[in-house]
Amino acid sequence: MVRKIPGASESNWYSQMAWSNLYKIAKAQKGNANPTDDERAAQQKGSEELLRMKIAELKPKCVFMFVDYWWAKPFLIKLGVDISKANYKSSYVQLISKYRDSRIIVTARPDSRKRGVRLQKFVGKVLENY
Fold first, then answer.
1. pLDDT score recorded for residue 50
2. Strands, sheet with 102-107, edge to edge from the N-terminal-most edge strand
3. Which of 113, 116, 117, 130 has the fewest CB atoms within 10 Å of its CB?
4. Is residue 7 part of a domain?
5. Of the candidates 98, 88, 89, 96, which has an alpha carbon nearest to the alpha carbon of residue 130?
6. Is 6 within a domain?
7. How confident is the model over 40-71, as pLDDT tens digits?
8. How many C-beta atoms lie closer than 10 Å to residue 102's C-beta?
9. pLDDT given at position 11
10. Which residues of 50-83 are buried (b: 16+ CB within 10 A; e: fewer)?
């Protein structure tokens, strides 16, 4: 995947990418770093606006959301992304759509799949469907 990014190499691939969690706040819980339903509800509006601002600032060619469709859905709706072709039962790519000049790709969460597929294979499957 790194070699497909122009100018990137094993040592500087990260300079071509930005990473951001959709929700910024979650209590530390044993075995789970995700926010609870109440924590998500409390920060939903601000998190949606922050994502919109980040996309506007960075102007990415592609936004990968490795979160499962149901987790991304409220953000996509708020952005006005066409979600009519979502395939939320897919093991890999669950939605490909557009937001302004960015392609939006929502995938299943790699670690939520119970088939023991390694992350490298998962990313390969995502790119095959991309």
1. 96
2. 62-66, 102-107, 93-99
3. 116
4. no
5. 96
6. no
7. 999 999 999 999 999 999 888 889 898 889 99
8. 18
9. 62
10. bbbeebeeeebeebbbbbbbebbbebbeebebeb
Does residue 35 fall inside a structural domain?
Answer: yes
Cα–Cα dist 114/127, whole Å = 20
| Cross-strand bridge partners of residue 64 | 105
116: domain range?
22-129
Query: Per the structure, how many domains does the chain have?
Result: 1
* Lookup: tokens for 87: 């395939």
Helix (H) or strand (E) holding 99: strand 93-99
Under a CB-based contact definition with an 8 Å cutoff, are residues 51 and 58 in contact?
Answer: no
pLDDT at 52: 96
**15 in a structural domain:** no
Predicted local confidence at residue 27, as pLDDT: 81
Phi, psi of 80 (to 5 degrees): 85, 25
